Amino acid sequence: MKTSDLLIKCLENEDVKFVFGIPGEETLDFMDSISKSRIRFILTRHEQAAAFMADAYGRLTGKAGVCLSTLGPGATNLLTGIADAFLDRAPLVAITGQADLKRIHKESHQYVDIVENFETVTKWNTRIEVPDVVSEVVRKAFKVAETEKPGAVHLELPENIACMDADETHEKPIIPIRARRSSPDNHSLRHATELIDKSRSPIILAGNGVIRKNAASQLRDFAEYLGIPVVTTFMGKGAITAMSKCFIGTLGLAKDRQISDVFGKSDLVIAIGYDLVEYAPALWNPDLDKKIIHIDFTTSEGDLHYVPEVEINSDIKETIELLGGMISSPKKVEYFPAFHRELLETFEIEGAINSWPVRPQRVLHAIRTALGDDDILISDVGTNKLWVGKFYPVYSNNALLISNGFASMGFSLPAAIAAKLVYPDKKVLAVCGDGGFLMNVHEIETANRMGLNIVIVIFKDNGYNLIKWKSMGKFGKAFGVDFSNPDFVKLADSFGVEGVRVQPTDTLEQILTWAFSREKPVIVDVPIDYSSNELLTHLL
Ligand SMILES: Cc1ncc(C[n+]2csc(CCOP(=O)(O)OP(=O)(O)O)c2C)c(N)n1
């Protein structure tokens, strides 16, 4: 069996459903092999988008998404998406072609050392240099990518190896087995229990780790039973349903009201599945005075502002359940019911204000109405993300995808395509700025070719608003942030899809209902008014 056939056989063995990518001359054997398999090849229009799709697939399923490119420029195009999976902790396996091994020691057409290039953005990264290692390499790649914290892995397959025969004895894929994490140890549990029992005013800081391990209902039971308020990070939204009385908001801006109103009142932070890459502890523990309990699969990062009294490095779900049973009495943290009420009220009041251009709050309220609890919203990066992060209530696991570790613009449209492929029966909506949208706009063709009804809502302000806003705050002026846009309705038309520009008299809810009734992608161009951005720092 030739090596590329064996590679595909091993991917099937890992239950890979899709490979996202763009082929090249050096991946011809790979393409020949995949064409004979049950794996669906999703041809994209840019390798970065392919990597974002694999990244979103990984977040939604917990299984590594797979992307493909050729050598050189194809592979360097993949890099941003791979880095996103790396810092956003999404399981991903990237496969790239490479030149014949006989020419990689010298200057040679399209050759750069991709393994070296990918070193800093992958958990593991290797070149397949002999056919007989393929089944071991593939099993290791998926294991490493999917193990906490998940992330990106890269395999390079040179073209002369791809068409070489593997030895028959090595043609057997290794069957994946599910390795279970050991239980939390009693000593650490008792220590954590003591700290919680003694604490006057504890708070839970929940991150994406809770979502990855589907522990939202355990977290809700734990928090509600003990009466402890919960703040999530942006990527932790959904770690506890926004309906829970214990949910009191999201942390995500440098000047966040949470810091003074919530962390200011707390003496103990119970960090569960929290990731420093999203929001630095120096922002919520500047004086190093908080006691911290670290609950996660992996040990904590070395950070002066994050030195836990106790670490429970174990299964998050089991830890929450065991701890809940050990704490003697519920806490009486008094402020949070009022905070939770305020969150709900602000959402309704702000979301009802009709003005022109439209305020982000109004759009997000209409989106919340259009989407069911389990439908999927995907946010791009920019001020649009801050509004989604601070304002949009999430009711279930993975009902919101945000890139907030690497925070790369251009994520939302490709991610929406992957989400719709994974969940054809769910509504999928991408919110993006006009800047982020145009970074991967070509994927409208991909979505259309596949007949996917995804809705893309563009917050149009003709500029890179987040940078403009920050620059105004720092210098009182902004430079190099304004641009013009194409006519998005005509652009949609030229792709063969439908587009609509919201007018002052339109009802957003009706437009979204119509958009979700179509069979193809729909672009909704919303002239946006960012003049209430300051409110972001006052929201819970
Ligand atoms: C790929 C990439 N390039 C640059 C940035 C820096 N950046 C962060 S937000 C932003 C502006 C985003 O503008 P837009 O997409 O229009 O969204 P808005 O802020 O207007 O909502 C920029 C340039 C980034 N995060 N990612």
Structural class: alpha/beta
Largest sheet: 6 strands, parallel
Approximately what portion of the residues adopt beta-strand conformation? 15-25%
**Multimerization status:** single chain
The average pLDDT is 96
Please provide a written account of the structure:
By secondary structure, this protein is an alpha/beta fold. Helix content is 39%, strand content 16%. It has helices at 3-13, 28-35, 47-61, 72-87, 114-118, 134-146, 159-162, 186-198, 208-212, 216-226, 257-261, 281-284, 316-326, 336-351, 360-370, 383-391, 412-422, 434-439, 443-449, 465-475, 488-495, 508-515, and strands at 18-21, 40-43, 65-69, 92-98, 124-127, 152-158, 202-206, 230-233, 247-251, 268-272, 291-296, 310-313, 376-379, 400-401, 428-433, 455-460, 498-501, 522-527. The strands form three sheets. It has a six-stranded parallel sheet with strand order 2-1-3-4-6-5, sandwiched between helices. The protein has a six-stranded parallel sheet with strand order 9-8-7-10-11-12. It has a six-stranded parallel sheet with strand order 14-13-15-16-18-17, sandwiched between helices. Helix 1 packs across helix 2 and helix 8 (186-198) crosses helix 13 (316-326). It is globular and about 70 Å long. The termini are far apart. The protein binds thiamine diphosphate (TPP).
